[in-house]
Amino acid sequence: MVDTKKKSPISIANFSHDGEFVRKGRVILKIYTFAFMVKIGNIELPDFSLLLAPMEDVSDPPFRLLCKKHGADLMYTEFISSEGLIRDAFKSRQKLDIFEVERPIGIQIFGGDIEAMGQAAEIVEAANPDLIDINFGCPVKKVVCKGGGAAILQDIPKMVRLTEQIVKSTKLPVTVKTRLGWDEKSKHIVDVAERLQDIGIKALSIHGRTRVQMYKGDADWTLIGEVKNNPRMKIPIFGNGDIDSPEKAKLYKERYGVDGIMIGRASIGHPWVFEEVKHFLKTGLHLPAPTIEQRVEACKFHLRESIKWKGQTLGIAEMRRHYTNYFKGYPNIKEYRLKMVTLDNPQDIEEVLNEVMVKYQGFSSVETQNFAS
Ligand SMILES: Cc1cc2nc3c(=O)[nH]c(=O)nc-3n(C[C@H](O)[C@H](O)[C@H](O)COP(=O)(O)O)c2cc1C
Predict the structure, then answer these.
(1) Within a domain: residue 326?
(2) 175, 243, 265, 318, best to mutate for ligand 1 pocket (most atoms within 8 Å of CB)
(3) Is residue 135 within 6 Å of ligand 1 at its C-beta?
(4) Would you please indicate which residues are annotated as catalytic (active-site) residues?
(5) Ligand 1 centroid to 325 CA: how many Å?
(6) For a 10 Å CB count at each end of the chain, is N or C smaller?
(7) 226, 231, 283, 281: which is closest to 258 by C-alpha?
(8) Which tens digit of pLDDT belongs to each residue from 12-68?
(9) 243: Cβ below 6 Å to ligand 1?
(10) Residue 78 beta carbon below 6 angstroms from any ligand 1 atom
(11) Among residues 225, 251, 283, which one ends one of the domains?
């Protein structure tokens, strides 16, 4: 018998899984996993990373903090206008707020003017994120009609020049988030990915829709898989679009071989999604659905953090859109939401949340299998 008490375990980094004990000769080695398989420049991420998608008016610091607590490996700010940053607009500047606890974190910028985007990258670098992400995917008219977001998918040479300008303007790793193409006839993502890699981007996130599709239909991951499995591609490829259950995350991981997935809508009101997916991938089992206490606690935390960051008036106003998300599937939750959206005082809102907790005590019909339902 090996006397484990006398011999202290030897830890070996970069080796195996989760502090598992293995026997080697007469010594028991405690081997830890720090198998950092995904690298974006010098940023090390766990194997099969889970990313929080950039989402306008959603992925602000209070929400990001919740997602971080629940297992997001890499997060992004919502997109920030390059023109706004250059004009020094308060709203754009405020979106640069990032916190140590959030790292690694990327700041995302958008715009159609190459020089302005280069200048914006310099401003972003001063905010000290871990990386800069370029938005080449936003489909909304007000962005596209100014040549920003997905508009650039109609002019790939410009997309390449713009990206090159940003890569040259910063020492930070530059990543890109884009779509398959502008429309059905121009799904050039396989070629685009190679060209962007060649000019120095360090990772690519692909939303499996075209601009013309907006958010309609199902995301098509076939081309995402083709990009990932292109032998020319060396940078991490993250798939995005419609991941709304641990099963789907596992299926797409296995089917398309991506380096990680980016989750957007399924995290809204459900920041537990990251740990739920991780647990399922590791064990094949579902974590229990968050209890009403946990939902109320998360909602209160979100409210308090919003007030801390935005001030009471704005913090309360902007929280109004989130209440029902935390209680999806709970019958008659609307009646409580109606109360909460008319209140201006945080204590009163928390009182209503306490009522919600009492009312739905032990209510168990909400399942997590489909958190975005
Ligand atoms: C409310 C909302 C805001 C979004 N804002 C951004 C954004 O600022 N930047 C961006 O690249 N994509 C943005 N997106 C797109 C998401 O990042 C993501 O690509 C899309 O929702 C598909 O992923 P999902 O099916 O996991 O939600 C937004 C999506 C939503 C729903």
Answers:
(1) yes
(2) 265
(3) yes
(4) 138
(5) 16
(6) N
(7) 226
(8) 222 233 333 334 444 444 444 445 589 999 999 999 999 999 999 999 999 999 999
(9) yes
(10) yes
(11) 283
- Residue 56 Cβ < 6 Å to ligand 1: yes
- Residue 257 gets the label, from left (phi > 0), alpha (psi -120 to 50) or beta, of left
Amino acid, res. 181: G
Is 53 found in the same domain as 2?
no
Residue type, 300: K
Mean pLDDT for the chain? 90
Cα(56) to centroid of ligand 1, in Å?
7
93-102, long-range: CB within 8 Å, 24+ apart, which pairs? 95/60, 96/123, 96/124, 96/127, 97/61, 97/309, 98/61, 98/127, 98/128, 98/129, 99/61, 99/65, 101/65, 101/68, 102/61, 102/64, 102/65, 102/68, 102/75
Determine if the pTM surpasses 0.70: yes
Total count of domains within the chain:
3
Do 275 and 159 belong to one domain?
Answer: yes
Q: Where are the alpha helices (DSSP H) in 199-291?
A: 222-228, 246-256, 273-283
CATH number at residue 303: 1.10.1200
Helix pair 312-319, 346-359: axis angle to 10 deg: 30
The alpha carbon of 204 and the centre of ligand 1 are apart by a number of angstroms equal to 15
| Mean of pLDDT values over 272-279 | 98
Cα(160) to ligand 1 centroid in Å equals: 22
What pLDDT, in 10s, does the model give residues 191-221?
A: 999 999 999 999 999 999 999 999 999 999 9
- Give yes or no: residues 104 and 240 share one domain: yes
Q: Measured from the CB, is residue 54 less than 6 Å from ligand 1? A: yes
pLDDT, position 23: 40
Residues 86 and 105: their CA atoms lie apart, in Å, by 21
| Residue 172 pLDDT grade (very low, low, confident, very high; cuts 50, 70, 90) | very high
The answer to whether 340 and 302 are in contact (CB under 8 A) is no
